[in-house]
Amino acid sequence: MKRTVGVAVALALTAGLAWAAVRSQDGMPEMPKPQKEHEFLKKFVGTWESSNKWRMTADEKWMESKSIETNRMVGGFWLISEAKGDMGPGMTFEGLGSTGYDSYKKKYVCTWVDSMNPSLNVGEGTMDAAGKVLTTTIQGTDCSTGKPCTMRMTQEFKDNDTLVWSMFMTGKDGKEFEAMKAESKRKK
After folding, report:
1. Which of 17, 77, 97, 127 is an S-S bond match for 81, by CB 3.0 to 4.6 Å?
2. 8 Å CB contact between 55 and 179
3. How many domains does the chain have?
4. Same domain for 156 and 68
5. Based on the domain organization, do 5 and 88 belong to the same domain?
6. d(CA 181, CA 168)
């Protein structure tokens, strides 16, 4: 019975998508098209090599690592990112993210999951007036306490092949500190 319901749902979805495609050919409303905010995301497409620094508290010494991130677009709307790296002796890292622009919210939206955290991170962000710095507020879970936490990330292209970014967290004292920073270079 469950299989029959699943097949029926899949067929209905397929028929609906086919109808939508035919409908747009008949002059009816068309599917949404990427906007200028989506064009910005295309700047991230490619393979990037990063030199990273990170720490867990404001008073810790910076640790260093290397990573590679590969980015591609899906449908002109979504940037899909896959990162792999070395976080120190015996600690490898993998992460997957998606970033898009929600034209209804008028904000960039993102998700992030990785091999070092069992929870989903979700964020929303805006571009500065000059169109150079994307600042995203991310809701996640603090791995050391299991409680909700808020992070802030900034991303800025120094040129077409150089991206710098920083991640800020709130310490136990309630003050924000820079927890991660990196410079990424496009691999050619």
Report:
1. 97
2. yes
3. 2
4. yes
5. no
6. 9
Nearest CA to 163 among 4, 40, 64, 5? 40
Whether residues 1 and 75 fall in one domain: no
Domain that holds residue 2: 1-31
Full-model pTM: 0.81
Q: For residue 23, name the pLDDT band (cuts at 50, 70, 90).
A: low
Q: What is the pLDDT of residues 91-103, one digit of tens each?
A: 899 999 999 999 9
Q: Which residues pair with 32 in a beta bridge?
A: none
Residues 82 and 131 in one domain: yes
Question: Same structural domain for residues 70 and 5?
Answer: no
Do the Cβ atoms of 140 and 152 come closer than 8 Å?
Answer: no
Q: What is the pLDDT of residues 161-172, one digit of tens each?
A: 999 999 999 888
Same domain assignment for residues 116 and 26: no
Statement: residue 173 has pLDDT above 50: yes
N- to C-terminal Cα separation, the chain: 53
**Do residues 167 and 152 lie in contact, with contact meaning Cβ atoms separated by under 8 Å?**
yes
Tell me how crowded residue 63 is: count the other CB atoms within 10 A of its CB.
14
Q: What does residue 68 show for φ and ψ, rounded to 5 degrees?
A: -125, 135
The answer to whether residues 123 and 180 belong to one domain is: yes
How high does pLDDT run on average in the chain? Answer: 88
